[in-house]
Design a protein that fits this description.
This protein is an alpha/beta fold. The chain is built from seven helices and seven strands, in the order αααβαβαβαβαβββ. β6 and β7 form a beta hairpin.
Length: 230
């Protein structure tokens, strides 16, 4: 299969700033610059390998990147920073499994720079893209881990937050990450459907938020687990 090509010029920060108010967001110059660098790299790499489906940066921004700032807003409502003070800030450790093209993680770090964020991706070409993007965007405390989830999770535990976007079916994801969560750790699932009424034993829905995306509705689920021994 031939990789997608695009003749579209990369977006400038001013172009991004001009578009985002229609998406319900006003960006700082620094955020727009970071997104400009990310989208430019994504378009460049997308000519050689299929990182994302759309070849138009406006569609990528609207359909994919916008999820990241909405996710940042949602994360700010969760108890990840509970009991933090100016003199004793809490620095949550987050893990993004199957990071792929860096969505939602790389744009997310422009809007939610809390703690340390680990992008776990085993595929070499995607890992190379992630490393280049992290450097180009100047993201701090954002680490690319070129390894399997089964290796990364025990090495990083205890985890305050585990994110997933289509990495595994959510029941399998919960089973995989549960042993490595901190006592008050959370799992964040990005889904195209509302959460079920019943979850596997030991899991509870901590928070949920829905939001429109085109003609569809998407969801964030935040799940908490009972403490188990390892």
């Amino acid at each position: 299969m031939t990789a997608k090509t695009t003749s579209q010029a990369p977006p400038t920060p001013d172009q991004i700033i001009a578009l985002t108010p229609d998406l319900g967001r006003t960006l700082t110059k620094e955020q727009a610059l970071g997104l400009s660098r990310y989208l430019s790299l994504l378009l460049q790499w997308n000519q050689r390998m299929n990182l994302v489906g759309p070849g138009d940066w406006r569609i990528i921004l609207t359909d994919l990147v916008a999820d990241s700032w909405l996710l940042a807003d949602f994360l700010d409502t969760l108890p990840l920073l509970k009991n933090a003070t100016d003199s004793h800030p809490k620095r949550p450790l987050a893990v993004d499994l199957g990071a792929g093209a860096g969505l939602p993680g790389l744009p997310l770090r422009l809007f939610w720079p809390q703690g340390t964020y680990h992008l776990v991706e085993i595929r070499r070409k995607r890992t190379a893209f992630l490393l280049q993007a992290v450097a180009a965007m100047g993201l701090r405390q954002t680490v690319v881990r070129p390894e399997r989830a089964e290796q990364a999770l025990p090495a990083l535990a205890p985890l305050d937050l585990c994110l997933s976007r289509a990495f595994l079916p959510w029941p399998r994801l919960l089973e995989l990450v549960r042993p490595w969560l901190a006592p008050e750790g959370l799992v964040l699932i990005m889904a195209n459907e509302a959460p079920p009424k019943i979850f596997p034993s030991g899991w509870s829905l901590q928070a949920v938020r829905s939001y429109p995306s085109g003609d569809k509705t998407r969801y964030f689920w935040s799940l908490a687990a009972a403490v188990i021994s390892r």
